[in-house]
Structure formats: C-alpha cells, structure tokens
Predict the structure.
Amino acid sequence: MKENISFRKDIARRMWLTKGSRYNACQRLQNKYRWSIYSISILTFYVLLINLTQLFPKIFQNYGLEYTNFVSLALSIFILIISLLESGNNYQVKAERLFNSANEVARLHDVLSQIPKDGRNQNIRKIQIVASDYNDLIESCSENHEKIDLEMFKTQYPSEFGLNNFKVFTIKVRHWFAAYGLYALLISVSTYFVYLKYIYPVFD
C-alpha cells in the first residue's frame, strides 16, 4: 500500500515538474525568436543609417570611409549570425512542440489526480497505465526542456524547493542571459559604435 502511494506521488511530481519546465521552455524559445527578429530589424536599420552617410557627405563629412566600411561589415556579420541561429534552431517549431508536450503531460496529470487513492488493484493498474503513457509521451517528443527551464520553474515555488531570495535572483539572471544575452550583447555593441560615430556628432 505504502509503495503504491509512493509510486503515485513520484509520478505526479515528475509530471508536475515536466509540465512546468516545458511551459517555461516554450516561453523562453518564443522570446528568443522575438528577440532575434527585433535584433535583425535594429541591426538592419543601423546598416541603412550608415549607408546614408555616403549619400549626404556634407552632413557626415568627418566620417572616414574605413570606419564606415568596418562598422557596416560588422553589422552584416551580426545579422548573419542571428539569421543562422534562427534558421538552425527553429525556435518557433521547438516552442510549439514543447507546448503541445506540456499540454499532454497536464492532461495525464489530471487523469492521475482523478484516480481514487484507495489502493484497489484496478486503480493501481490505472496508475501504472498513466505512468506508462507518461514515459511514452516523453520518449515520443523530439524536444526537451533545458536545465534552466526547470530551475526557473522552481523559482515559482521557492519554499517548495528551499530557495532563498538570492538563489532565486541568480537563477533568473542566468535565465535572462540564456534567453536574451547574445541579442543584448550584439545590439549594445552595435548601438555603441553607431551612436558614438554617427548619431552623437550630429547633435553635439
């Protein structure tokens, strides 16, 4: 009897963790996709802005051609990097798969919660079927959440996992860098060089 209760709790907890982690993974990948689009748009705008300096030499007469070519080339490389990452990772497709998987896990979790806890053989068999369906579902999904997604889920229930405020903060910081770090870096570096040489002097 105790073994059956323990088995049921173990399956329920695994489902709970998997469901929450995969919903978080879906959200993280959707954010990465959006930020990749934003980044490409901003960097493309900078490339166009730099090209304008060659069309209006009187306004931008102090800018060297070598610097302009360097920045334009660097921005083009940044755009290429983001485009390759997006096409290679298929963030939207992965996010959809993980979202559907999380929904299926949630459905099985609901089914498990409705099975009586009386220890009768037929109900034990139902629990075993749900556990088997859960394992099959995990194996059938070609995508999996990452460790940071699980850790982010734990920050939603800090007392459940014994997380203090500092630990919650560090996890959220690492999650932010995992989702936005590359894009924030490329945009910041590009904005610095463009602003320093092409925007600030105009309004100085």
In short: The radius of gyration is 25 Å. The helical segments are 2-55, 65-89, 91-113, 121-140, 147-155, 158-161, 165-203.
